[in-house]
Amino acid sequence: MHKIIFYLLMAISFSSMASSDVTGRWSPSCDDEEGITLTNGNSPVFFVVNHNQIVISMQTKTTKESIDFFLVKPVDLGSGGMKLSWSNFSKKSKIATLKLHEQSANFEWYGFYDEIKKVHSWVNDPDIIINNEIVGGGVVFYRCIK
Q1: Which of 4, 7, 36, 134 sits in a 20 to 30 Å window from 24, CA-based?
Q2: Residue 51 pLDDT > 50, yes or no?
Q3: Which of 13, 3, 91, 86 is nearest to 48 (CA)?
Q4: How far apart are CA 52 and CA 85, in angstroms?
Q5: By C-alpha distance, which of 30, 38, 29, 24 is closest to 69?
């Protein structure tokens, strides 16, 4: 996969907040390729959970202070991603939240909720969690301004 696979590409419809407040690139380090890109629109939301292993599409629910993410389906799976029980994972339980602040945001990953086992799985395994320090329950993202 190309360098872009490191991005968490997201297109979000902002019905309850001013789009100019949150659109653009957000990242734990603006020098790295990791992060998210928030834009206006109703395009699918894609999330690179693990490079070359798990890419998913997500739905969003936007509030004034945060954006909640919900699993739709896996889009691209490597051998590790194929071992997960995708048919058991809830589409109604949020898998992540982006809590918005003025010039930063806190990305909290909850994992995939297994409706059969009644537990979250893949909680500590995403690249964004492994590669960054956890502060206040999530990874701090900063607004990257060109």
Answers
A1: 134
A2: yes
A3: 3
A4: 18
A5: 38
Q: What number of other Cβ atoms are within 10 A of residue 1's Cβ?
A: 11
Q: What's the pLDDT at 85?
A: 96
pLDDT on residue 20: 43
Q: Is the pTM of this model over 0.85?
A: no
| Residues facing residue 71 across a β-bridge | 58
DSSP calls for 54-116: EEEEEEEEE-SSEEEEEEEEEEEE-TTGGGS-GGGB-SSSEEEEEEE-SSEEEEEE--EEETT
Cβ(36)–Cβ(10) below 8 Å: yes
Residues 105-144: tens digit of each pLDDT: 999 999 999 999 999 999 999 998 888 888 888 999 888 8
Q: Any idea which residue has 């998210």 for tokens? A: 36
Residues of the domain holding 114: 3-144
Under DSSP, the state recorded for 41 is: S
Tally of domains within the chain = 1
